[in-house]
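Minutes, project check-in
Item: structure for the 91-residue chain
Input as provided by the requester:
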Amino acid sequence: MKLLRLVVSAKTAVFRAIPLLRDARVPAVIKAAAVGAGVLVVSPIDLFSDVPVLGLLDDAALLSLVCVLFVRFASPYVRTGQSQPAIRASA
């Protein structure tokens, strides 16, 4: 069940990441980090390339992680419409 939830979360994050990359309110540093990690996924350097199944799974897991983290870090900038993320007030 947790694996299914992770797959659905990754799929949702991928579709949310594309518009966030185009959004001017998201800082360039966050975009550059996401693009850099994405380049690592498509680069010929592979951690588990010798193991048949793990060679594909580590790339998919890394890409999913990059998308989830990018959406998590970029969303506060878009929600507030400011160049700085909103800080939650403590109760």
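Outcome recorded: The two ends are 34 Å apart (CA to CA).
No further action items on this chain.
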